[in-house]
Amino acid sequence: TMTSSIIIMIAFSFFVQAAEGSTFGIVPYVDPANTGSITGIVGAGGSTGAIGFGMAFRQLGYGDAFFIMGCAIMGTSLLSVIISIKKHSAMFWGKEE
């Protein structure tokens, strides 16, 4: 029904906004002297992803496009565990300074 669709969309949006906030939340720690440049790179990455996935949905079937999007998301999520920021511990190693 329309009501359940709207409720699911609101819940999905909540988690998407939380994920975006976590991405932009680490920007000031990457290189404090160049926060503006890092913010631009992160923002450009979002635009690049939108264009790339938009092209995938235009050129491929929905099943293939969602599969590619899912693989890209899982791959980048797995890579996020190796992020290491100066003076802060990584997810599984290092120590706070």
What would your notes on this structure say?
Helices cover 73% and strands 0% of the residues. The model has no long low-confidence stretch (mean pLDDT 85). It is mostly helical. The protein is extended.
- Helical percentage: over 70%
Report the span from N to C terminus: 53 Å
**Main beta-sheet strand count, sense and barrel state:** none
Q: Structural class, from secondary structure content?
A: mainly alpha
Summarize model confidence as the mean pLDDT.
85
Quantity of strands, as a count: 0
Radius of gyration: 17 Å
Number of helices: 4
Q: Identify the overall geometry.
A: extended
Residue runs with pLDDT of under 50 for 5 or more positions: none
The proportion of strand residues reads: under 5%
Note the run of SSEs as H and E.
HHHH
Which helices and strands, and how do they pair?
Elements: H1 2-25, H2 27-30, H3 35-59, H4 62-79
Spell out the key features of this protein.
4 helices; mainly alpha
How would you summarize what this structure contains?
This protein is mainly α and 97 residues long. It contains four helices and no strands.
